[in-house]
Amino acid sequence: MNAELDLLIRLGDYDRPQDVAERAVQAEDLGFDRITVGETTGWNIVPPLTLAADRTDELGISTDVISPYGRTPAMLAQTALTLQAAADGRYRFGIGPSSPAITERWHGMEFDRPLRRTREVIEVMRTVFEEGNPAYEGEIFEIPGLGYERGPSENPPPIDLGTLGPKATEMAGRFGDGWAPQMFTADGLRDRLEDLERGAELADKDLSDLRVAPIVRCIAAEDREEARAKARGSIAFMLGAYGPYYGNSVAEQGYPDIVEEIRAAWDDRDTDAMAAALPDELLDELAPAGTPEEVREWIEEYSEIDGVDAVRVGFVDGMTEEDKRTTMEAVADLA
User: Are 154 and 148 contacting, i.e. CB atoms less than 8 angstroms apart?
Assistant: First the structure.
């Protein structure tokens, strides 16, 4: 496989931050190129990633993604620079516009102008990276400025964006160093890459200047039907219950009736009906689920989409530790 292989780690799967580091060591031993970890309403992302960076030698460390509402722009810059130092230059900072639920119900902030806020946060962060000062005048942030005590950075981390829609993805191409989309069919990803390329051109960049690393939810097991059942339930939940954005995106990729049926089932909190409403056709488009050989073939084919630099393999709900080990070993054969 020409593309790199990343492993998406969910903090909620572990009892201690140290366990995340142990998974990172396992990923490095298996040949993964990078781990990436998201932050929502669980642990602060910095301690487990610092431990993971300290216990590995070559493995890349990423965040997918940090909210622009949960920390000030200057604190986000401090966070990114701290993790870059802990990882000896192997870190990539990931940010996305977030969602109303996390922004309003967890952080207590108004979910207002998320794309503009994300853009300004990135611009403030780059100002800290390049000038050692967050001084900035924007539409959302007005920061008088104060010197970062370590001064400008000689090796600031790249900034990746996790986005779905055309305008947000254009922003990723224009202001980011990479793109980490999720829940895209192969055709849907190809279409959205056009938006990314348009944004890159606005910044006098080429698509090849960006690290494109789509996230796919994955399970490999010898019991094919059990693997597919777990994947079906997980993907259906993401489409129908996990906020509006994934469902809207997949609907726009050509599956509006299926998304509508899944959402109707969620209105009744009928998770069995949600899973039943997800046909094999769409499951196979969105998630590699089946035997180890089937999963390897799916990921290899997806990685060959023009413009893809890495595939980020995540797990589905309900997986045992044996399922996770089987899945990691199956896809690591491609590394």
Answer: no
181 close to 162: Cβ distance less than 8 angstroms: yes
How far does CA 190 lie from the centroid of its chain? Answer: 18
Token couple for 224: 């094919």
> Would you kindly state where each structural domain of the chain is located, as residue ranges?
4-222+288-332, 223-287
Q: Report residue 162 as tokens.
A: 């996790």
Report how far residue 120's alpha carbon sits from residue 102's, in angstroms, rounded to the nearest whole number.
19
CB of 298 closer than 8 Å to CB of 199: no
Residue 42 Cα distances to 12, 16, 45, 258, 265, angstroms: 7, 12, 8, 31, 27
Distance CA 333, CA 335 (A): 6
Concatenated DSSP letters for 191-223? HHHHHHHHHHHHTT--GGGSEE--EEEEEE-SS
Strands (E), the chain: 4-9, 34-37, 60-63, 91-95, 136-137, 142-143, 159-161, 178-179, 211-212, 215-220, 289-290, 310-315
Domain 4-222+288-332 CATH class label: alpha beta
Backbone angles phi, psi at 132, to 5 degrees: 70, 30
Share of the chain above pLDDT 70, in %: 100
pLDDT in tens, 174-213: 999 999 999 999 999 999 999 999 999 999 999 999 999 9
pLDDT in tens, 134-153: 999 999 999 999 999 999 99
The answer to whether 160 and 211 are in contact (CB under 8 A) is yes
Q: Is the pLDDT of residue 334 over 90?
A: no
Beta bridge partners of 61: 35, 91
CB atoms within 10 A of CB 150: 12
Whether residue 4 contacts residue 300, with contact meaning beta carbons closer than 8 Å, is answered with: no
39: which residues sit within 8 A by CB, 6+ positions away? 11, 45, 63, 65, 66, 67, 70
